[in-house]
Amino acid sequence: MADTNARLSELTQKYQSVLHSMEQEHVQLQNVNMQDAKLFIRGVAPSEEAKNKVWDQIKLVDPSYGDLIADISVDQSPQAGAPSGTQAAAPSASPSSRATAGATYTVRPGDSLSKISKEVYGDPNQYMRIFDANRDKLKDPNKIQVGQQLSIPKRDG
Question: What's the predicted TM-score (pTM) here?
Answer without folding.
Answer: 0.49
